[in-house]
Amino acid sequence: MSTHGDAPPAGPPDPLEVGARVAELLATGRRASTYKIAVLTALVQHCLEHPAAPGAALRVPIEDLAERVVELYWPQVRPFARAGVLRQNEQDGRSLPDAVRELRTAAEAAGLSTPAQLRAADPARSAHARREIARTLAQQPLFALQRTGTTAPGTPFLYDDTWLRRKVTVAELDAHDWSIELRPGIAAALVRVAGLLQPVLQQWWVDDVRRMNATELDDPGLHGFLFGADRTDLTPVRRPLADLQRGRCFYCGERLREAVHVDHVLPWSRVAVDGLVNLVAADARCNLAKSATLPAVEHVERALQRDDLDALAGPLRWPLERERVTGAAASLYGTSPAGTPLWRAPGVFDLLRPGDGARFAA
After folding, report:
1. What pLDDT is recorded for position 255?
2. Is the pLDDT of residue 4 over 70?
3. Tens digit of pLDDT for each residue in 247-271?
4. CB under 8 Å, gap of 24 or more: what pairs does 153-160 form?
5. H or E element at residue 6
6. In the list 1, 39, 70, 313, which could disulfide-bond 141, CB 3.0-4.6 Å?
7. Cα–Cα distance, 245 to 200 (Å, whole number)
8. How many other β-carbons are positioned within 10 Å of the β-carbon of residue 140?
9. Helices (H), the chain
């Protein structure tokens, strides 16, 4: 029973306040590398794919963040036009992108094009790299992320970082199960502001890359090179998906002509998942009209229910990622306000109804 003078029970944190504090951490602190932005982007993506109740805490494996960081840097370690491989750290020495570049080189030597393919083909190499990158994340960006700006030392608002340090040991990581735990309500708040926060993080990333490279990088293609949906070569899946769909567009059912597009059902700009479950063959008209809009719920349900994708996954050595797509759909549709336009066909939109997100709940 409450007594006079008791403080009212604290409710879930306000999402906009959380987003503003996250932005403040990055805006007011010195960024000597792109690591903080990378790990924060990975954290937001993890929350999107692992929906949590508004007031719930969420345990986040650091190795999961490591895999996502690999996926983020994977296309960025290619040469960019005449500038070559872009620098992403002000200091000399081995960097996270260097570790990712080594993985990518090994993958290409084996005829593989994505981190997921390498994980399936060479799990030992991938596991070793994931563990080393996870330790680097614990020692650097996860330790330093909340220690800038006006956030008071000792009162981290995202997760408890008091056990993290520059020279954190494997024993200390083992004692914490190689995980951080987001404070109650933080995961849900990050999901609510993901659509606003992720473009800001990407722009800061672009700005930092420009600053860290002596060569002029005003090329308008830099953002697309770092974050565009076409940064992963989807050519190997284009024809198999079209054949699986009997030569017809996934969305409108019309016969596919020469210009067959591979579309991310859940838009790449919302959630970066290249698994087969999130990929369909579409005609140019539907793909361009849909763009980055959330599709109608029935489109997503139909994409998730395709059992015949298993026959493609093995020969293509391409992951399905069904759980990731399902989790992301539950987050995106569960946190969007009722009445949000959902693309059904060129010029045709549904309106999101209350409870639509529950259709994807596990």
Report:
1. 95
2. no
3. 999 999 999 987 899 999 999 888 9
4. 157/13, 157/18, 157/21, 157/183, 157/186, 158/22, 158/43, 158/182, 158/183, 158/186, 159/60, 159/183, 159/186
5. none
6. 39
7. 37
8. 19
9. 15-28, 35-49, 62-73, 96-109, 115-121, 123-139, 141-144, 170-175, 186-212, 222-227, 235-244, 284-290, 297-304, 310-316, 322-335
Residue 7 predicted with pLDDT over 70:
no
Task: Evaluate whether 45 touches 272 at the Cβ level (below 8 Å).
Answer: yes
The CA distance from 34 to 205, in Å, is 6
Q: Distance (Å, rounded) from C-alpha 95 to C-alpha 251?
A: 43
Nearest residue to 326 via CA among 72, 50, 47, 52: 50
Rounded CA-CA distance 13/244 in Å is: 45
| Tokens of residue 70, six digits | 């690999």
**Residue 260 structure tokens:** 């067959």
CA distance 249 to 228: 23
Q: How many CB atoms lie within 10 A of CB 76?
A: 21
In DSSP notation, 263-281 reads EESS-TTT----SGGGEEE
Distance CA 28, CA 51 (A): 29
Tell how strand 279-283 and strand 260-264 pair up: antiparallel
Output the six-digit token pair for 275: 């698994």
Q: What is the number of residues in the chain?
A: 362
- DSSP states along 211-237: HH-SS----TTHHHHHH-GGGS--HHH
Q: CB-based burial of residue 120 (10 Å sphere; 0-12 exposed, 13-18 middle, 19+ buried)?
A: middle
Long-range contacts of 153-159 (CB under 8 A, 24+ apart): 157/13, 157/18, 157/21, 157/183, 157/186, 158/22, 158/43, 158/182, 158/183, 158/186, 159/60, 159/183, 159/186
Position 33 confidence tier, pLDDT thresholds 50, 70, 90: very high
CB count within 10 Å of CB 253 equals 11
Check pLDDT > 60 for residue 229.
Answer: yes
**Element housing 59 (H / E):** strand 58-61
Give me the pLDDT at residue 151, please: 46
